[in-house]
Amino acid sequence: xxxxxxxxxxxxxxxxxxxxxxxxxxxxxxxxxxxxxxxxxxxxxxxxxxxxxxxxxxxxxxxxxxxxxxxxxxxxxxxxxxxxxxxxxxxxxxxxxxxxxxxxxxxxxxxxxxxxxxxxxxxxxxxxxxxxxxxxxxxxxxxxxxxxxxxxxxxxxxxx
Length: 160
Description:
The chain has one domain (2-152). By secondary structure, it is mainly α. It contains 7 helices and no strands. The radius of gyration is 16 Å and the shape is globular.
């Protein structure tokens, strides 16, 4: 059962990656599916109270990041937030927030942003759109982390 869950998570993350690269639009149901599956896996690995508390903390962190980005977009870039940050990116942030305990979330969130930045600069001349496929790159990063962790069992991603 867990193997099927992991395969479905991998496929949903790859779906987000492919759609974001190809069309810069991702079906909302892929975010819902990924959030549900990652949340289910997280919920089954930790205590109920821990799941609720870490999800609240993680979502608070995401909303703080979005607020800072909003202020930056308004004051420095002089653009509305919608022009600088996509809804799919926000939804993927929420997927990550639901899917992991706080320590793992912070590490995955930070390194997925760094991975996205580096990979975007490497691939920017090959991309047909000028914008960063942030949700797709982050989904690819999480997918690679899952695959390597499930194959080599480096660490428990759900350790609190």
